[in-house]
């Protein structure tokens, strides 16, 4: 079992602490949080060992799980990596692309592994259809949330949209060539609602909308590709796959047949996958343990997370 420690014991940090304690692949050693009052309360309530400093915690573990505010990601990661310890970093990987690239360089220099918490990659609705996503050419995403002061220290692009940016980059195997975007600050000092259009070199276009001032929550993505439409509901954990194939000469009387202007007939059929329930955060943490133990590449690499951050920053630069 890998010895793990958590930096940060806020809302998400407490979830990571609980899951690491439950996992068969980690031994939760303890945590550190500079908010002494809150840290002591959590240690007393849940029985986790509270360390007196970041350095003490790093010295006691094999893996550090960074669940701190984004501004501190780089400093925490740098200390961890230079101590020769593996690092899991909540998204976004860092505050700037330069910091993220520095983290990549350090991880290579000190020969440690790193993974970033783009948790939607582990959403069962997404994993159920990922192997069916074959060269999508138009993608539309909506990630809407009711207002919550937590997370408003960064633009909605880094808070919410970056989830969809990362997911899209993982299935579109082409470089982004052009970005158009707009954003509006409604209640926060940074944009609360944003829309972005990503154009890829292979012709794919992705249209992303993110809002943290909506009346309801929504996390849906739609992928359109040759002869198929795939819908993923990240919130409800549901997926729908609609495919078309050449219609048989003698179709079943209940078959749904479409005919285009050229007279080509296609039969529509549904290929909805089974979506197995899971705990996505536990899965991302445990697959990182597997990558360390087996010396394989993590599912969400530092490089991939850096590219998602790079695109997100370019979106913000359009505002």
UniProtKB/TrEMBL annotation:
- Residue ranges occupied by any GFO/IDH/MocA-like oxidoreductase domain in the UniProt entry: 155-216
Gene3D superfamilies the UniProt entry points to? Dihydrodipicolinate Reductase, domain 2, NAD(P)-binding Rossmann-like Domain
Q: InterPro entries this protein is in?
A: Gfo/Idh/MocA-like_OxRdtase_N, Gfo/Idh/MocA_Oxidoreductases, GFO_IDH_MocA-like_dom, NAD(P)-bd_dom_sf
- Provide the Gfo/Idh/MocA-like oxidoreductase N-terminal domain boundaries: 3-118
Q: Which Pfam families match?
A: GFO_IDH_MocA, GFO_IDH_MocA_C3
Q: Which domain of life is it from?
A: Bacteria
Tell me the PANTHER family matching this sequence.
BILIVERDIN REDUCTASE A
Q: What is this protein called?
A: Gfo/Idh/MocA family protein
């Amino acid at each position: 079992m890998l010895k793990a420690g958590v930096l940060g014991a806020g809302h998400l940090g407490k979830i990571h602490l609980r899951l690491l304690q439950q996992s068969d692949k980690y031994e939760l050693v303890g945590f550190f949080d500079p908010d002494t009052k809150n840290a002591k309360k959590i240690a007393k309530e849940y029985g986790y060992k509270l360390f007196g400093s970041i350095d003490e915690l790093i010295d006691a573990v094999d893996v550090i799980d960074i669940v701190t505010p984004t501004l501190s990601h780089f400093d925490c990661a740098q200390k961890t990596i230079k101590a020769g310890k593996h690092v899991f970093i909540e998204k976004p990987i860092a505050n700037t692309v330069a910091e993220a690239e520095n983290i990549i360089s350090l991880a290579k220099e000190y020969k440690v592994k790193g993974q970033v918490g783009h948790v939607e990659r582990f959403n069962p609705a997404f994993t159920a259809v990922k192997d069916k996503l074959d060269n999508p050419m138009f993608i539309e995403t909506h990630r809407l949330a009711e207002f919550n002061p937590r997370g408003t220290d960064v633009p909605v692009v880094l808070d919410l949209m970056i989830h969809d940016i990362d997911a899209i980059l993982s299935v579109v195997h082409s470089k982004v060539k052009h970005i158009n975007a707009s954003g509006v600050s409604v209640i926060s000092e940074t944009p609360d609602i944003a829309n972005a259009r990503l154009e890829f070199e292979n012709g794919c276009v992705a249209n992303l909308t993110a809002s943290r001032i909506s009346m309801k929550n929504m996390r849906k993505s739609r992928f359109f590709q040759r002869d198929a439409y795939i819908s993923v509901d990240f919130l409800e954990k549901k997926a729908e796959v609609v495919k078309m194939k050449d219609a048989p000469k003698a179709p079943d009387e209940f078959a749904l047949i479409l005919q285009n202007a050229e007279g080509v007939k296609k039969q529509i059929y549904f290929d909805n996958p089974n979506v197995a329930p899971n705990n996505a955060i536990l899965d991302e943490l445990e697959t990182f343990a597997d990558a360390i133990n087996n010396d394989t590449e993590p599912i969400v690499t530092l490089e991939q997370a850096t590219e998602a951050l790079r695109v997100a920053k370019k979106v913000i630069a359009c505002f």
